[in-house]
Design brief:
With 1007 residues, the protein is an alpha/beta fold. The relative contact order is 0.08. The protein is built from 37 helices and 22 strands. Helix 12 packs across helix 27, helix 31 runs antiparallel to helix 32 and helix 32 packs antiparallel against helix 33. A hairpin with a 4-residue loop joins strand 19 and strand 20. The longest helix is centred in the C-terminal third of the chain and has 25 residues. The N and C termini lie far apart (89 Å).
């Protein structure tokens, strides 16, 4: 195998592999052809470790199943991405070790706490100091990578020397404080590193690269040396590229340098342009583009690839250079083969509605790739959440892609267990977290005999105020018959483990983490060893061990801070298990994808703020400050992202995926996609789209339009229990359910099934309504109005809400609303009591109805009945929205009408049933108003409605006296979305209502 000698021409030797070519395959083929038997003597430098591994695979493929001695392939380390460089052997012997990232974070947090507090005038918490430490680390990284000495510049800025005082005084107060702090920090940080005998990692990387540059300058390598795939964003890396290019057998291979761009346009390229970084590198060494040659293995005819590159480079040309776009479009269309049309072949754009739809489309595209032997699909996106959705969709086919992002530690069993422990340190009585921990497979109490009893009687419903509240409830004698001893023992054992740790002050982070780790092991099975098993356990144990070691002496102010710090670390942790993934399905970030080979590329997350990402907010540096210090602008990062996009989008088969909504928020398409579409519009073309995948994805996620014969979905339940077990009594509040959903009556009254309350039942629901009802009942009995009435009702509302075991935080939310609610209700009461009615509060009424089965008891408990000389009004208080009079007249809300019927037949003791029924009122009580809403339509009267409701109920009773009458589920489905039922899952509602109900009995018509 022989080819052109890449070292034959005199140095410097600069090459480029065009965008869209398989970079690693072309590189490996060109090196093999040029070096032949000398291949093993070569040294190849790649920017990342993943690229180095992929490079080795490309060389292996060149061997075509034969033997091949590989060259040395080393990852030089992408300095701009913080990747560690390769081992530089003797060059680092006299350098101090690098400070670990976690140790650096804590040291910088201490520096912030010591220096920033006095400048800002506020105390900085440990959590805030650690968050700011990340930004300060980024500042020192920028100084190191750009090799900027900011000491004098910051001093001049703060002191006013160098004519910078005017600029500083013109800035906002925050930036002035920040500049003063940075002026102190750039002096304090080197001193602290010297005390530790360590070196800043970024500074150490740059120092090593500089030493390598010096070594190769004095003693140039005699063997082939190739630096490939980097753009030279850092000055030290750019200088290393020059050394390699001028070496006797050296060459630099740039990724995707645009050699066809007009010279006047090239001169206008700015930082945010895809070519911006490489232009700066070439300009640094006075290398003209005509001195950069196409890599020999990439010279073969590639009409389609060249056309795609031309389109992308034209679309992303600098904004100032788009004045002659129409002329350029005409040139492209006039070229042989129509460059525009040819370049769009193999490129597809798919617009999806939301995240789930985008994930389904991408998963289908990746799954389809596997139908072609040896074909590889790669998803490239900076949106980690979307990549995880795609991985979840692929699992439906039993596929697990190779994801460079790994899996979140927080999603593992170990991560979840630790997060539960941290949450329970602050609130050991939190029902949701407690149930999560006690039911966790790693927990020593998992499967405990008392867990169900504790959950059912204590942990469901309103959140207990404290752990002591649970202890008191368990110790209450009248509850011992409902709480088994196993539950008491479980709670006592749990508290015995948790209480000593909660009593700690947690003033030192290292000691606090040690105590929390010991606590987690005490709560876990197998003496805690189960927590540290597997890849997630190994990752968690290494993280916690380093945290304990590096955080010694870091001061905390309380339990909440250690919880915040540890939770942040766990949520940021990644688990990379390796292996057990499909070798032909890749999910990569834009950085990892630079040197990876794939046949089908899917570019997703092409929305502004996602790709390209919005510039990170820097709490220390404003744009003018970065300019004064000579640091790069945020647009440089945008330019690197744009280069990654062009490299990927120039591949032969590319799908561009966008979303109209991301996490529910409207999105705008990426600027690059917008520029490409604008170019196509100018040529009268459109980016091709393939609607098949969108249709398939929607069909997979939708219900079946035509049921296959083998599919037998559940039918609408229609139980027909024996007549003897059917209920012979019912309160009017359940009649509403009887009308809408008879199956719920069957489940509740005949099967005796009761829904369990949710843990942490929100106060805004039944709990709050019950408390307000009790308050209004007490207030009516007190008979106090005016200002005194407002005061008394406010007190009653607060007392009843507090009696529901609301937490202090929940009470703090409710308390400001009570005075307004009391004021509005007292005004309403004053108006109602002007006629001096007799009030009957919360009285029970009963009506015996004769049926074919015997005597049926219909009961009602009215919130209030007002007896006047001319009639009787019935009032029902609501904290939510009352039903409309139209719905009441239709029979769907018979509570008030049936209560009136009971009253008319003498069912309420002490009320003259001969008096006519006046108003049926729903009283809506809210913080800003108390409104009475009549349930009787104009032109109708309450007496007729009561008679009609009673007659309808009699007919219903007779219907259900027939053994053949089923208790159908949801006979009034129009209320399903508004008022879901407690027994819908038991009825398998979704299954029969979506897939059909062909075999169900004929629906019962609503009265």
């Amino acid at each position: 195998m022989s080819g052109p000698d890449i070292f034959a021409r005199p140095g410097p030797r600069w090459f480029t592999i065009p965008s869209g070519r398989c970079f690693l395959d072309d590189l490996a083929r060109g090196i093999c052809e040029a070096l032949g038997d000398r291949l093993s003597t070569a040294q190849i430098l790649t920017p990342t470790r993943r690229g180095a591994r992929a490079m080795a695979r490309s060389f292996s493929q060149q061997a075509r199943a034969g033997a091949l001695l590989l060259p040395q392939i080393r990852a030089i380390g992408d300095l701009d991405e913080g990747e560690p460089p390769f081992d530089l052997e003797a060059l680092a012997l006299d350098l101090p070790p690098a400070l670990s990232p976690l140790r650096r974070r804590f040291e910088l947090a201490r520096l912030i706490t010591a220096e920033y507090d006095g400048l800002d005038g506020r105390d900085i918490s440990a959590k805030l100091a650690l968050e700011l430490a990340d930004s300060l680390a980024g500042f020192f990284d920028s100084l190191a990578l750009e090799e900027v000495d900011a000491t004098d510049k910051l001093e001049n800025l703060v002191s006013g020397l160098g004519q910078d005082q005017y600029a500083l005084e013109g800035w906002a107060q925050h930036w002035q404080v920040s500049a003063k702090f940075l002026n102190l920090a750039v002096r304090a940080w080197p001193k602290r590193l010297a005390e530790l005998g360590l070196m800043d990692p970024s500074q150490r990387q740059v120092t090593l690269i500089r030493r390598l540059v010096d070594q190769w300058t004095d003693h140039p390598p005699c063997t082939p040396l190739i630096l490939a795939g980097t753009t030279g964003s850092a000055p030290s890396m750019a200088d290393l590229m020059q050394i390699v290019a001028t070496a006797e057998q050296g060459a630099v291979v740039l990724p995707g340098l645009d050699l066809s761009l007009a010279e006047d346009v090239w001169a206008q390229i700015e930082e945010s342009h895809p070519q911006g970084t490489m232009k700066r590198t070439l300009d640094r060494h006075k290398v003209k583009r005509e001195q950069v040659h196409i890599w020999p293995a990439s010279l073969e005819a590639d009409r389609k690839g060249d056309a795609r590159r031309r389109i992308l480079n034209e679309a992303l040309r600098p904004a100032e250079a788009t004045k002659d776009w129409l002329a350029q479009i005409a040139v492209l269309k006039a070229e042989e083969g129509d460059t525009l049309t040819e370049g769009l072949k193999g490129l597809s754009e798919i617009h999806t509605a939301r995240d789930e739809e985008a994930a389904s489309v991408i998963a289908l595209l990746m799954r389809e790739t596997l139908e072609t032997p040896d074909k590889v699909a790669a998803l490239i996106t900076p949106d980690i959440a979307l990549s995880r959705r795609v991985a979840a969709r692929l699992s439906r086919w039993g596929l697990q892609p190779d994801s460079s992002a790994g899996e979140p530690l927080a999603n593992s069993l170990t991560g979840r267990f630790l997060l539960d422990v941290l949450a329970l340190l602050e609130a050991p009585h939190d029902p949701v977290r407690l149930l999560s921990l006690l039911g966790h497979p790693y927990c020593r109490f998992s499967g405990h005999a008392g867990l169900f009893g504790l959950e059912k009687r204590i942990l469901r419903g309103a959140t207990p105020v404290s752990a002591e509240t649970i202890t008191q409830i368990l110790a209450t004698p009248d509850r011992l018959d409902r709480i088994d001893q196993n539950a008491i023992d479980l709670w006592a054992d749990y508290l015995a483990i948790m209480t000593p740790v909660r009593a700690d002050s947690f003033s030192d982070l290292s000691r606090a983490v040690s105590r929390i780790v010991a606590l987690a092991e005490s709560l876990a099975a197998d003496d805690g060893q189960v927590l540290w098993s597997g890849a997630p356990g190994l990752q968690a144990s290494e993280m916690l061990a380093e945290l304990i070691r590096e955080s010694a002496g870091f001061t905390l102010s309380g339990t909440h801070e250690v919880g915040d710090i540890l939770s942040h670390l766990i949520n940021q942790g990644k688990v990379r298990t390796g292996g057990n993934t499909h070798p032909r399905l890749l999910i990569l970030g834009a950085i990892e994808a630079r040197l990876v080979k794939a046949d089908r590329l899917i570019l997703a997350g092409l929305e502004e703020g996602v790709w390209p990402q919005a510039p990170a907010l820097d709490p220390f540096l404003s744009r003018p400050m970065r300019q004064k210090l000579g640091l790069p602008t945020p647009e440089r990062r945008t330019g690197l992202s744009a280069h990654d996009f062009v490299q990927a989008a120039a591949a032969p088969e590319v799908f561009l995926i966008t979303r109209h909504r991301r996490e529910g928020e409207p999105q705008v398409a990426s600027r690059w996609l917008w520029r490409l579409q604008t170019l196509c519009d100018g040529a009268g073309l459109k980016i091709p789209t393939d609607g098949r995948y969108l249709d398939w994805a929607r069909a997979m996620d939708a219900g079946l339009k035509i049921k296959p014969p083998a599919l037998k979905p559940a039918v609408r339940p229609a139980p027909k229990p024996p007549v003897a077990v059917r209920p012979m009594s019912m309160p009017v509040t359940q009649v509403e359910v009887f009308v809408r959903d008879p199956y719920a009556i069957y489940a509740r009254r005949i099967l005796d099934l009761r829904p369990l309350e949710r843990p942490n039942e929100p106060v805004e629901a039944r709990q709050r309504g019950t408390a307000i009802h009790k308050s209004l009942e007490r207030f009516a009995e007190a008979g106090v109005l005016g200002d005194e009435g407002v005061r008394r009702l406010t007190e009653m509302l607060e007392e009843e809400l507090a009696a529901t075991n609301l937490s202090p935080a929940q009470m703090a939310l409710q308390r400001p609303l009570l005075a307004g609610m009391a004021r509005e209700f007292v005004a309403f009461e004053t108006e109602r009591r002007a006629a001096k009615p007799r009030l009957v509060i919360e009285q029970q009424g009963e009506l015996k109805l004769g049926t074919s089965r015997g005597e049926f008891s219909l009961t009602a408990k009215s919130d209030r009945i007002e007896v006047r000389d001319e009639g009787v009004d019935i009032l029902d208080f609501k904290t939510g929205q009352p039903p409309s009079a139209k719905a009441v007249a239709a029979g769907f809300y018979p509570q008030l009408t049936l209560t009136a019927a009971i009253l008319r037949h003498g069912g309420f003791t002490g009320i003259d049933h001969k008096k006519p029924v006046g108003d049926l009122l729903y009283i809506r009580v809210s913080p800003d108003s108390t409104i009475a809403k009549n349930a009787v339509l104009k032109g109708e009267n309450a007496t007729d409605l009561a008679d009609k409701a009673l007659e309808s109920f009699r007919r219903r009773l007779e219907d259900y006296a027939d053994a053949g009458k089923p208790y159908l589920s949801w006979t009034a489905p129009q209320f399903l979305k508004v008022r879901g039922g407690d027994y819908d899952q038991l009825a398998r509602l979704y299954e029969w209502s979506v897939l059909g109900d062909d075999e169900s009995p004929e629906e019962e018509l609503s009265e």
